[in-house]
Amino acid sequence: MLRLDGATVRFGKRAVLDDVDLEVADHEIVCVLGPSGSGKSTLLRVVAGLQAADAGRVLLDGRDQRGVPVHRRGVGLMFQDHQLFPQRDVGGNVAFGLRMRGEAKAEQARRVGELLDMVGLPGAGRRAISTLSGGEQQRVALARALAPEPKLLMLDEPLGQLDRGLRERLVVELRQLFGRLGTTVLAVTHDQGEAFALADRVVVMREGRIAQTGTPLEVWQRPASEFVARFLGFDNVVAATVSGEAADTVWGKVPVPAGTAQGEARLLVRPAGVRLVPVEEGLPCAVTGRTFRGHHVAVLLQPAGAPLLEAECALRDAPEVGAEVGVAFAADEVVVLGAAD
Ligand SMILES: Nc1ncnc2c1ncn2[C@@H]1O[C@H](COP(=O)(O)OP(=O)(O)OP(=O)(O)O)[C@@H](O)[C@H]1O
Fold first, then answer.
1. In this protein, which residues make up the domain named ABC transporter (predicted)?
2. pLDDT > 70 fraction of the chain, expressed in percent and rounded
3. Hey, which of 13, 20, 41, 81 would you mutate to test ligand 1's pocket, going by the most ligand atoms within 8 Å of its Cβ?
């Protein structure tokens, strides 16, 4: 449905989108993630036609979009500042694309009713925009973007300004809605929780390039590089020399999965693989912090003369700050990362 071939955008000498290849299949939901300034919005703007590519191609349904203006690309856009028309009521906003297309009034009214039902705002057509909550406005913006039945819907930080609870609820609703409608979606967010909950596939960007792409589970379980691992919030990363089924590190011997290439490597030990044992049976550490994370506690551990480690502990097993504990590592939570970066 969508293909980018070597898409490149330069501002001055700097490539903010650097030779990007990406394919999005029919009905797929793809979320682009990455730190601020990594080129996520520029990627969307190139696909939408709001930004010309300096090199490379954008193809929609196999057709090169060079020279095709925004409104002829058949893509729906929903941006962070959803820019509803404040002087029109909800129905007037949702009907916008249909009116532009010259649909008959009765058909417009039918579609508006249907879309408002779909986004969970039945009967809200006559309400003024100023009377809606942030989440309701977001839904109206979504209904407006969906109204012309775009073949590709593009969302830029769709839930950006909403509070956490509402975001978590809306993200589930959106996924269900897109599944039901068979909408193909390309979304940009810097919130990994949102991306992982919404996407069939995530794309992690770094400095205008794709650092990794995969299903949420693949990326979460096997971050391809130290950059991706740290971006996802994993900080137990260490230089290692692999020999047999263990590696020498500043944290002592760390077991590695069978079949790991021998020699120099960077290892990630996911916090779930940092196990607490009696102090004499493992790497001695002092507990320096505890952060409640809902279903577990993140425990910060300081070994003598080596970088901090984070462990994931069940609520009832989490030691107090100041306690001395031992640490052992579980091979199934150790990931060998790609080239050091
Ligand atoms: N019109 C422009 N002129 C010059 N530089 C630009 C322009 N638009 C974007 N940039 C730069 O390109 C880089 C990528 O911007 P982009 O908005 O794509 O990043 P992003 O990943 O979406 O970031 P954020 O999460 O902060 O929105 C940034 O460093 C930005 O300053």
1. 2-232
2. 98
3. 41
Angle at the Cα of 204 from the Cα atoms of 149 and 5, rounded to 5 degrees: 65
pLDDT tens-place string over residues 15-64: 999 999 999 999 999 999 999 999 999 999 999 999 999 999 999 999 99
Q: Do 74 and 207 lie in a common domain?
A: yes
Last residue of a domain, one of 190, 223, 256: 223
The SS3 assignment for 259 reads coil
Question: Does residue 34 have its Cβ closer than 6 Å to ligand 1?
Answer: yes
pTM of the predicted model, to two decimals? 0.86
C-beta of residue 302 within 8 angstroms of C-beta of residue 319? no
Q: Which of 223, 256, 284 is the last residue of a domain?
A: 223
Rg (CA), the chain: 24
Output the pLDDT for position 6: 96
Spacing of C-alpha 86 from chain mean position: 30
**Comparing C-alpha atoms, which of 208, 199, 191 is closest to residue 33?**
191
Q: Encoding tokens for residue 286?
A: 């002092």
